Amino acid sequence: METAAAPQGLRFRLLGPLAGWAGEQRLELGRRQQQAFLAMLLAAPGRALTVERLGSGVFDEDNPPGNPRSALATHAYRVRRELRNHAAGHLLVTVDGGYRLDVPAEAVDAVAFDRLVARAGEALAAGERTGARDLLARALDLHRGEPLAGLPGPHAAELRRHLTERRLDALETRLGLDVELGSGPSCLVELDQAVFAHPYRARFRALLMLEYHLSDRPEEARAVYEDARRFYLAEGLTCEELDALDRRIRRADPSLATAARPVVDRRPTGPAPTAVPEQLPARLPDFTGRRADVARLTEALSHPDPGAVVISAINGLGGVGKTSLAVHVGHALRGHFPDGRLHVDLRGAQAAPLDPAEALAAFLTALGVADRDIPADLAERAALYRTTVTGRRLLILLDNAAGPEQVAPLLPGSRTCAVLVTSRAWLSTLPGARHLPLDAMADDEALDLLAAVVGRARTDAEPAAAAAIVTACGRLPLAVRVAGSRLAADPGQSLADLAASLADERTRLGELAHEQAAVEPVLALSYARLTEEQARALRLLALPDAPELGPADAAALLDRGPEQTRDLLEALVDLNLLQSPAADRYGFHDLLKVFARQRGAEQDAPASVTAAFARLLDFCAAAARDAENAAHRDPDGHGFASIEEATAWLRERTALHRAVIQRACRDDGLSLARTVDLLDTMSSILFGRGYVTTVADLAGQVAAAAEARGERDAEALARSVRGGMLWHANSYAEAGEELRGCLALCDGPDRLTLRADTLKLLGANARALRDFEQAVGCLEEAAALFRQLSDDTAEGLVLGELAFNQAQLGQLPQARAAAERCASLTGRQVSIPESVGRYYLARVLHLCGDLGPALDHAEYVLERFRAFGMLAFQAATGSLIARIHLTAGRDRATVRAAEEALPHARQVGGLLEGAVLRTLGEALVRLGHTDRARICLQQALGHFRRLELTGDATEVEELLRGLA
User: Fold this and answer.
1) 440 DSSP 8-state letter
2) Do 175 and 212 reside in the same domain of the chain?
3) What pLDDT is stored for residue 637 in this prediction?
């Protein structure tokens, strides 16, 4: 070795696999981690290193020992014992809670290398070029392979990179001297090998071009340049040095004879850095889920695009786990960024975000720049920062950014770096960034997180309570972790007890706190940065118990114009305080809605809240009436492209309408007249059993509220609506009671329309109970009232119902006339009433024996009802078609039609399902499939008995007896 023997005869090698000798005897340096400990001390001979510094450099953070201090003490004991066996005195000493290795610097080959390179630099400066080349050759001979080959730990990785770079710098300088002084073919061979081994170092390529040029081989020089151009182009790089050299070669620049002269290496030759910057916070040991997000970020950051800095920006609500995800990914990518990982909390959610100049100063310090060399000016700091990181493979985590303007100065210019940004805001104007919006966890991931904190045994023992806790937490990782921490701190508390505590929205945020962790302060940070207008909007938009709002709904709540409202909504979306799952749809995270409502209770006067709901109620009632008119009369005249669009719009708004109606029942300041108008509109278009039940329940609440307030008109209409919905739900006895109660309230000339509507419903109810005479009496009175009111459509629909009852009584001529009059009054334009009118006509024509026209009308309206989403009428029409086929003796067609209608009838239930099953059973009997026929008829009988439809039940019993 070049190193002179130390006073104790010791010498150590870092420029290759770690080794040590005492004289000619090789030292036993122990296992790899012990060697890493020794290497870290040898890199700083005579300097004390703290236990913390040694631990961070020796131990892999992904697999640290249980007690790092004890592990280091064991390594120190073994190294000290080996050194004592070969040298007098205590070379490894314990000082100030750390360790120092007292060996002379000249005992370490890396120090000898630096001293030889420094002497070569001095020789170059003095013009002694041959002497400089010889000194560099001696320095390079000290390298015996990869520095610290095979040693683990962050320090070994950084020292390995540093020593390798120093060797390559020295090799460039020595090869440059070889070209200048003339070393013949051996220089070409070595340069060619260097280019192959280190293709990114342009200096090797330049020297090879120059050597070919000076050897009078211009074609080879040009080939080296062309190969370099192709390589750098593929990598998205440029190299001005090679371009300039090529131009000089082509014009035979006479100064090229001295172009290989190397720049004097004036870099300091002090000790190598003891660690790469490793500033990432510790990752959560129980990090759970986010598999797709982890994969997406890992792929983006580990495979950068050529020529561009990779920037991945994670945005989301406070507490959604942005930092945890970023830190987890940063640790997972450690091997991709051997030059270190920088981290800074930009405090973007706080009142005073971190000045980017401060962040730059911290980064530059971590990268080894002395305080005195850090400029005061922000632009100069940013420029120095970009210069310092150039060529380094660094991961830079910019956590909790306030906005793009704070992030921009912290972006590197080198494509070898990657940047990971987290922010509560959507950094949409950050150039070149790939955005990852982070939402609440999936149900299974949130349950896994709770189990990781609490223990799987406890969540498995109370699965329902665990699910309730996760739901109450809105699957927000912070909330789930806080809830889990409370349970973990109290092993005796059941999950059911905590779930019960979290069930009350009024106290939920208070319950989601444990020691220093709490959900409410995290949300409050975002709220505090809003403008007054944005904060008011957030509070008011949280009021309705509906999953989503549209821009027009929001405008009504906020009492703002369309453009101002949209700007507010989009600003809140950008800040991740509102979610926008689809165009023109806006909603809240559950816990944020709870928070916004609490702030509203504290800051908004009750009168202003009532006024906001009144505006929303007015808008919903007017818009719903427009949709009803579009469906029943003229789509184009009410802002809808089609009847289907109008009915779909009403269906989608069920949750919002329910929320508004329920609020009106609780708030005396809201108009029940307007509320029942909205309710009545909802009842005019039927979508299925669940919808019918919802409207019936709401009508009951409105009727009770109206009765309590003495509002007879509102009560009467609410009872009428409820009666109609109960009828559609096959609750005939309850429907009749509700409708008769409504009729008793319709005792004035201003309630004729409601009286007529109620009589129509009573007639339909009587028909279901097979009391056809009572039905005819109610329906004739209703038709006369609608005629008096000049409401042709309503009169037509009543006549259609009347015609069916007349036909059942054998009054076929009267029935046909009434049905044809119904179709005439309702069929003036394509609409829901037109389809219903033709359905009534088809039904009567069937009873009159006109099966062909009856089938034509029925098949036409079946497609219309399917398009409108009117499930009850779709099922009824399917049942009618099957019955027509049965009457015509087309038994197989009957079975096909009945089987097609049966799934829809089952969704509606009751009478319709029984009717379809009966028809199917009759057809199967005639086809000889008696076993299946018996099953269908028995199921139909069960429905009729439950509904107390004695006549229908008796007829089916007769059919079953026939089978027996």
Assistant:
1) P
2) no
3) 52
Last residue of a domain, one of 551, 583, 604: 604
For residue 395, how many C-alpha atoms fall within 13 Å in the half-sphere facing its CB? 30
pLDDT band at residue 88, thresholds of 50, 70 and 90?
low
DSSP 309-339: -EEEEEE--TTSSHHHHHHHHHHHTGGG-TT
Q: How many CB atoms lie within 10 A of CB 19?
A: 16
What CATH number has the domain bearing residue 421?
3.40.50.300
* Cβ-Cβ contacts under 8 Å for 38 (sequence gap 6 or more): 18, 20, 29, 75, 79, 101
Q: Which CATH number belongs to the domain containing residue 929 in this structure?
A: 1.25.40.10
359-383 pLDDT, tens digit per residue, is 999 999 888 887 788 888 888 888 8
Phi-psi region of 948 (alpha: psi -120 to 50; beta: other; left: phi over 0): left
Does 466 share its domain with 545? no
Report pLDDT for 184: 61
- Cα 388 from Cα 235, distance rounded (Å): 21
Number of domains present in the structure of the chain: 6
Confidence of residue 3 (pLDDT cuts 50, 70, 90): very low
User: Token pair for residue 322?
Assistant: 């942005």
The residue ranking higher by pLDDT, 580 or 261, is 580
The answer to whether residues 945 and 897 belong to one domain is yes
**481 lies in the same domain as 584:** no
Residues 308 and 234 in one domain: no
- CATH code where residue 582 lies: 1.10.10.10
**Range of the structural domain that residue 517 is part of:** 460-524
437 DSSP β-pair partners: 315
- The answer on 156 and 254 residing in a single domain is no
HSE on the CB side for 33, CA within 13 Å?
A: 15
SS (H, E, C) 790-809: CCHHHHHHHHHHHHHHHHHC
Q: Does 319 fall in a domain? A: yes
State the pairing for strand pair 513-514/433-437. Answer: unpaired
- Rg over CA atoms, the chain: 42
User: Taking residues 408-429, what's their average pLDDT?
Assistant: 87
Place of tokens 């509700």: 738
Judge contact between 822 and 787, C-beta under 8 A.
no
Report long-range pairs for 873-879 (Cβ below 8 Å, ≥24 apart): 873/686, 873/835, 873/836, 873/839, 874/904, 875/901, 875/904, 875/905, 875/907, 875/908, 875/912, 875/916, 876/839, 876/912, 877/839, 877/842, 878/904, 878/905, 878/916, 879/905, 879/912, 879/915, 879/916, 879/919
Cα torsion 899, 902, 903, 905 to 10°: value is 160
